[in-house]
């Protein structure tokens, strides 16, 4: 039987998408809009400062198109932290102007396809690799950059079935895939989080870049990698841009 | 023709998901929220105590993300018990603050792939196995643990068709699958219930663990089992955590 | 070219699913609820008595889970009868507390796979068979039993295509399927109705039993029949229980 | 490369489905219902009389089940005519009691699979065939008959791909299909309209008959034609019955 | 491994679909409708004049059927421009009479299948080709013409997988496809924009013509091209017609 790769997990992740009820916003008296902005900004600022937990990271993004208007991403040590953050938003006056059209629950994950020795003993690898792995499990969110989020699974087709091929063959495909990724070093930051058992696809992918065409380019290039072309199943894609909590009012007012 | 395995059935199961109308909750006067909490808590407590029937088990869970906020699970001897429990919830003031985005109807089931002798005569097997089977049919719900629920069917693909392969081959795959499960003994409790003829997939799977990464790990490991990789079709996944009815107010107030 | 089987048709069928707006129900003054119960009961009673047409049959069922709360089934000689029954419900005060989440339109049908002589000349077969056929076309609805409804089509896959195989081979598979059915004689009553040209699947199947595990068992057993395993495509499943119109109030009040 | 058949186009078609808000209807004061009936009737009458354009045809149908209550079909020389008809409905008081759950946009089309000479020069064929073709492009809508509407596409499967087979082979299959159709001459009238580039499937099919079992029979028989069994992909099916605009009030009042 | 083609990108694109709430429109007092028309017209006129950015193009279209009533298309140099345009609409009184049922985010793209030399050095090709490429990246929107929009992806089937075939073979198919397109020179204008990483399909296609049957014809003809027949996966299709902002009132008033 094909073997599962060893994995390690870090922070749990909530992608919390929100749609603004622009009709309600337009019709609300100014003091209600001001209160919504004040409470929303405060909620976002506190979570970006991780005032609710020992560690983690949070950020808010504007989102293009009808699928959502805002995306709030939380990385936290426990699912309970995420549940509290989700409900805390609902207690703000801002929440009264939003609905939650979708969301995604996952946990940051690294897999031992390329560096099995790390998974046997993390201290057996050099500090640089340890830091790299740590950065994957407890990622920072870049400032003022574009974001793309999409969930994905590995195909279990009748002919092409990721879960039915040998570890070595999978490792080789993952290696080639990583090569494509390296061409985007410095242009793209990527967070991979497993949603197996938690949400409808197997992983959530979050890409950051200061140029959205880099995002288009890396996803397109990677689609030609065997691991994607034959084995990738993609869900919906969302694109947006990070803004500081202090700009929430500017975003909402246009 | 391939033969169906012998089966035995126990309690019927309702997974009743609820979404909280947080806008209504935020805007409601305190006495209405207090009444909703009081009636909701009382309803949940009575059902956890199985005051409505001779036997069974019930529990309430918080759920992460947009798909639901609460999951109430009822195990009861009859479908009528489940219908009454579902409608009883609707008579509480809490129901006025919720909608029911989804649900799942099933009956706990054991299959005779590995122990056919039990299905010929339950008394022919030792007491330990009898107790094990009983525990599958009339399961207890663990306290204060994380839960994952998902429905699944066996694939009837043009090439890989579970229902078109021999009993023995299926039994062997189920055996291998059970081996994977045994590696999680003490970490994961699992309830399997058939929804054939009752709901949209063939089975509902409910996993419990005190560590959500165990849930991720077992589902991921099992995906490499032939029975899943080639023959599993999965629906939506829900993740949450059990809380005692007395904590309903704390959950709703944030 | 493969040949279509001869068919005969009987009554047209409407499966009319209704979801109760429990919030509106909870909040309505008693006299409004009483009027809704009175008008709803009267509507159901008149249709069970077939006061609206020369012949037919009607029944109401409670339904478990979020997909519906009530299922009203009408068998009538014409589509116009069904249209009138559907609109007559909308004129009751009960309708104001319900929405119609789904429905199914079909016509009872028998196919000449096993008894072609009947379709050449119904009088050529013995009275017992004639009565059997008649019962399929103008079915009675059993009292106080559980019901399962699901729509289905025959697969037209690239490899396994029901409509591309010979009449004889199809007839043989239907015969084997009927054998499985006979093992449930006395336990399960089944109504088959064609929705080809009328609704989204090709047939609607309605099963009745006094024990819901018989429903689970027959659908599971039949799934191993080649006709289902290779050629069946199933839609959503609904499960519920018949109740007399006089119990409508008891159902709604909990 | 396989060749596209020559085609000719006639009137553009809008299938405009409407769901009645029966709760609003039940609760509306009589004068509002009367006004809605009057304006709705007048709108339908004017469009049946084609008072809005030089030529065309329109009709209204009751529809069974939850998918819609009314279907208004317009045939007109331009898409602009259809847009005006759609918006004109919205200006009636009747529209206030309806929503538009679905619709279909297409253009009547004939294809040169069987009579290529007509497409080279319409005058090269006899007057009977010219009239037949004209009737396909500018169809009449039969009085007081049942209607079935469904959209369809030709399959582009990995193995069976309509668009990848030779013109001659396709022409042969279309010919066989036409033979099946001829068996229903006098029983079924059929309108075929292309929605390629306009709507989600490739064609919309509208069938008329004074007996709905003829509709079931022709669609079932044709499903065994290779062109359907291997190459047909069908959308949702809708069934209803034409009524004269003057009966709108009777329809709405039950 | 198959190689991705070189690409170049131009303006970002937002297809912003809007559904008119005709009930609210019908019931609104005249001064509110007048204000909505005035603000909507001004918003559209300013964006058609590209008063909000250095360069770009915008247009408004009426859309047939239930999927939308209006389509506003914006081409702009940055995603931020699109986000501002989307939110600016929400600040108009017109927005209060609309919802946003769907949308599409993409970036105009040219691919180096046929002219790789351009992608090495744009100045290495003649001015005519440079202008052609420029026109693809910074397109003009034709006046008063019909529009068809649909998203599409290249198939990654188990047998036919676009991303698994050689660059040369893909280039050849694209060349044949372009030949089909050339037959519609002067009849059809086409804008191709990549949505890889931004939205749910891989490209958005926008076709313009003064005759909607040309749109039907080109999409049908191209469906027989191998690149579409074997490798095209299409989403929903929308059809409409451009109108000048000054005609917004006429459109809304019928």
Automatic annotation (TrEMBL), chains A, B, C, D, E:
Keyword Heme listed: yes
Keyword presence, Heme: yes
Top-level taxon of the source organism: Archaea
Signal peptide (from-to): none
Organism: Halobellus clavatus
Key words of the record: Heme, Iron, Metal-binding
Protein known as: Chlorite dismutase
GO molecular function: heme binding; metal ion binding; oxidoreductase activity
């Amino acid at each position: 039987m094909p073997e599962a790769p060893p994995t390690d997990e870090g922070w749990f992740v909530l992608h919390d998408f929100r749609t603004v009820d622009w009709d309600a916003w337009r019709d609300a008296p100014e003091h209600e809009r001001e209160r919504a902005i004040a409470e929303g900004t405060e909620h976002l600022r506190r979570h970006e400062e991780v005032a609710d937990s020992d560690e983690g990271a949070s950020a808010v993004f504007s989102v293009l198109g009808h699928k959502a208007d805002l995306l709030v991403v939380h990385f936290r040590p426990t699912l309970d932290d995420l549940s509290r953050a989700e409900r805390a938003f609902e207690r703000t006056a801002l929440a009264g102007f939003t609905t939650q059209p979708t969301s995604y629950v996952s946990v940051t994950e690294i897999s031992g396809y390329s560096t099995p020795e790390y998974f046997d003993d993390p201290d057996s690898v050099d500090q640089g690799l340890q830091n790299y792995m740590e950065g994957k499990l407890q990622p920072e969110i870049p400032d003022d950059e574009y974001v793309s989020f999409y969930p994905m699974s590995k195909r279990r087709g009748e002919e092409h079935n990721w879960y039915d091929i040998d570890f070595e063959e999978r490792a080789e495909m993952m290696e080639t895939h990583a090569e494509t990724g390296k061409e985007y070093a410095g242009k793209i930051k990527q967070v991979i989080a497993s949603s197996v058992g938690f949400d409808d696809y197997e992983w959530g992918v979050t890409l950051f870049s200061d140029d959205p065409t880099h995002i288009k380019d890396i996803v397109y290039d990677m689609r030609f990698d065997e691991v994607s072309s034959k084995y990738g199943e993609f869900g919906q894609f969302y694109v947006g841009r990070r803004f500081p909590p202090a700009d929430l009012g500017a975003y909402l007012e246009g």
